[in-house]
UniProtKB/TrEMBL annotation:
InterPro entries named among the record's database cross-references: P-loop_NTPase
SUPFAM superfamilies xref list: P-loop containing nucleoside triphosphate hydrolases
Protein name (Swiss-Prot/TrEMBL): ABC transporter ATP-binding protein
Length: 241
């Protein structure tokens, strides 16, 4: 639960003040215009950014340092972007090393370790080849690996919530629907919060919570949009997601 939270940057307000109440279960979509405000809100909810004003409580915790240990975040390039020029095996080996006590030697990641980390997220979807370069796999698979790593932090902390930024970073329509299905499945076990410009189609995913927010306080909006907004909104609604 967040009350009157806001973040301000060097160029002025980023978002807020906002009141947000996220359910403790299921999938929640934070819908709003694209921009840095939505990412800043995701960072705030996950304990990675301290709000300038207001109060924040996540999973019963109020200190950002404690929230950060219990809330996983994925899809924020500054935090979890995968290097395109390395193999998946290298990423998993580094994860294994960081997850191993420093006095012990960590063997190179094998298929069993790969499965243990990524299978809970990928479900029935095929895992990319372990020796494939990140640049060779789809944007969806890259994001699924990022989610899997976020849910298995190297410090072994128990994750109680997942926050994912920018649903639309998966550009392909079909892949985005697959991603939504994965997030919905994960939300059966822990609350999942995802940032999205557009709401999800009810006929595809009827059971989720939609919270529409204005998080673009730093973006100037024209008084005249230069088009028939009612018509644009009708077309956009028909093409949502």
């Amino acid at each position: 639960m967040a009350h009157d939270i806001s973040v301000r940057g060097e160029e002025g307000p980023v978002y807020g003040p906002l009141d947000v109440e996220i359910p403790g279960t299921g999938l929640t979509v934070l819908s709003g215009r694209g921009g840095g405000g939505r990412t800043a809100l995701a960072l705030t909810i996950s304990g990675r950014m301290k709000p300038r004003t207001g109060t924040l409580e996540v999973l019963g915790e109020t200190k950002p340092s404690v929230i950060r240990k219990r809330v996983a975040i994925a899809g924020v390039d500054d935090i979890d972007l995968l290097d395109r020029d390395v193999r998946i095996r290298v990423i998993l080996t580094e994860h294994r090393a960081w997850s191993t006590p420093w006095i012990m030697w960590a063997p190179r990641a094998d298929q069993d370790y790969y499965e243990s980390v990524c299978r809970p997220v990928f479900g029935e979807r095929d895992l990319p080849p372990l020796d494939a370069y990140v640049s060779q796999i789809s944007g969806l698979d890259r994001l699924l690996i990022r989610i899997a790593l976020a849910l298995r932090p190297a410090n072994g902390a128990e994750i109680g919530m997942l926050v994912m930024d920018d649903l639309e970073q998966v550009h392909e329509f079909d892949d985005r629907l697959i991603l939504v299905t994965v997030l919905s499945r994960l939300a059966e076990n822990i609350p999942v919060v995802v940032n999205a410009v557009n709401r999800l189609p009810d006929e595809f995913l009827p059971d989720y919570t939609l919270i529409e927010l204005f998080t673009d306080a730093s973006h100037l909006q024209p008084s005249h949009a230069g088009s028939d907004l009612d018509r644009i909104h009708r077309i956009a609604k028909e093409a949502e997601l």
